[in-house]
Write a structure and sequence with these properties.
Layout: H1 3-14, H2 24-30, H3 33-43, E1 46-50, E2 53-57, H4 62-75, H5 83-90, E3 92-94, H6 106-131, E4 136-141, E5 151-158
Antiparallel strand pairs: 1-2, 3-5, 4-5
Helix pairs in contact: 1-6
C-alpha cells in the first residue's frame, strides 16, 4: 500500500460518513481554508540558518530561541559537547507534541502518528531540498521508537557542519 492509501484507511475509520472512493472528500468535508493554511505551515515549514546550520522553524520565536541558546553556550566556559549533537537536538520533532489536542479514535491514533511522521519525512525532505539545493540532509524517523512515539530527525549531511568560533567541545 502507498502512504496515501494507508492514510485513506485511517481516515476511513475516523470519518465513516465520507465516501471512501474519494480521498479528497475527507479533506473537503472535514476541513476548511484556514485549517489548510495552518497545516501548510507544518508541511512547508520555515527554515533558517544560524551559525551556518539549518533549522526547521515550526513556531514563532523558535529561531530566536535557538540563536540565544547557541550564543549562551558559546559565551559559557563549559564543555558544549559536539556541535552536530547540539544542532540535531533542535531538529528533532516528536509527532505527539506537534498538536495541543488529539481527538478521540484511540484505536487508530498510534498508526496515525506513524503515518504523519512518514508524511513529514517526505515533505520536510522536499522542503529542505528546495530551500538548500547545495546541501544534503537526512530526514528520517528515529529508531527505535521510544515511549514518546515517532520522532522525525533532521541532520545535515553535506557539507559538513562548520563548528562556530568559540564553541568548545
Amino acid at each position: 500500500m502507498t502512504l496515501n492509501q494507508r492514510i485513506d484507511t485511517i481516515l476511513g475509520s475516523v470519518f465513516r460518513d465520507a465516501d471512501p472512493s474519494n480521498s479528497f472528500a475527507y479533506f473537503e468535508k472535514n476541513s476548511n481554508l484556514y485549517t489548510a493554511l495552518a497545516l501548510g505551515r507544518l508541511f512547508w515549514a520555515d527554515v533558517t540558518v544560524i551559525h551556518e546550520a539549518v533549522f526547521l522553524v515550526l513556531r514563532e520565536g523558535d529561531a530566536r530561541e535557538v540563536d540565544s541558546r547557541i550564543t549562551a553556550q558559546i559565551k559559557s566556559a563549559s564543555d558544549n559537547g559536539q556541535w552536530r549533537d547540539f544542532v540535531d537536538s533542535f531538529n528533532r520533532f516528536e509527532v505527539r507534541h506537534l498538536f495541543l489536542s488529539w481527538s478521540g479514535f484511540p484505536e487508530v491514533s498510534s498508526e496515525a502518528e506513524f503515518l504523519l511522521a512518514e508524511l513529514l519525512v517526505e515533505v520536510w525532505s522536499a522542503r529542505l531540498s528546495s530551500a538548500f539545493p547545495d546541501r544534503e540532509f537526512s530526514v528520517r524517523m528515529e529508531e527505535p521508537v521510544g515511549e514518546e512515539g515517532p520522532c522525525v530527525l533532521i541532520s545535515q549531511i553535506r557539507p559538513p557542519l562548520a563548528v562556530p568560533e568559540g564553541w568548545t567541545k
